[in-house]
Amino acid sequence: xxxxxxxxxxxxxxxxxxxxSPATIRKRRSLLMGLVKYDNPLVECDVFTLRRHLGRxxxxxxxxxxxxxxxxxxxxxxxxxxxxxxxxxTRLPSIRVPRGEPRPFSPEQFDTLLSSGAYRRTRxxxxxxxxxxxxxxxxxxxxxxxxxLVTNTITTIGKGRKHGRLPLHPAxxxxxxxxxxxxxxxxxPKDPSQPIKPGAVSDLIHDAIRRSGITDRKLxxxxxxxxxGSNLVDAGVDIRVVKELMMHESLSTTQIYTRVSExxxxxxxAALRSRDIPAHSGRPIAGRHVYxxxxxxxxx
Length: 300
Hints:
Elements lengths: L3 H14 L4 H16 L9 H8 L6 H20 L26 H8 L5 H13 L3 H5 L6 E2 L4 E5 L5 E5 L2 H7 L21 H15 L10 H12 L4 H7 L5 H7 L4 H9 L18 E4 L2 E4 L2
Antiparallel strand pairs: 1-2, 2-3, 4-5
Helix pairs in contact: 1-2, 2-4, 6-9, 6-10, 11-12
């Protein structure tokens, strides 16, 4: 039987050949290694162990769902390659995850985040998330050649290796004036010829959030992208335009990232014009009468 390490390496090769993104490959490996960390076998694991792992305490539904999908992909690969005869993941229960709620930073929280001691490099990363809606993977790979000041655009690669050429926000254009024009904006400290890892970007922004005194645990580096979408909607930008700026495949995904502010909700409800409400129904009520000019009439 193939060792767990060899199986993970072979699975990674398979995913690369299928065009899966490096982020997806890393994420799946991390989730699969989580099973090993609990002293469980990986290649020879049975369905009962997988269920027990998914059902452990204090695990968010979203994490359980991600683990389940990683197991399904991995064991399907093992079965198709003849490494295993069966596929234990086929008998895993489905996991229903409630639709996510937007979790943007407020403008005040964003200002606090920028003014609480974060270094210049981290502030620039934060601004790319807030003003361009970039994920940490896109922030990590910004290159000077991605910026076109003539067309006022920035080129990036989004989720699923989707290429995009997006309008450059004035704040990012201003930052670009002080950044390399033909090199990585955020080079790796270990190998400057390569960009910093997305995980390192996430860690730096996490540290800035903690240092700022923001205690809301729902606010993460990805919340900067939620802020981007929510702020655009709040400014009256058409949701279809927001979809394109966020490089989403569907409007339903965009709606997860966008929250309408309370002030906009108040404006919306106020836009519904009030109409006069009659004080009485106008219908006769049995047994109740009044007299008008000496004539008995029904009262309503």
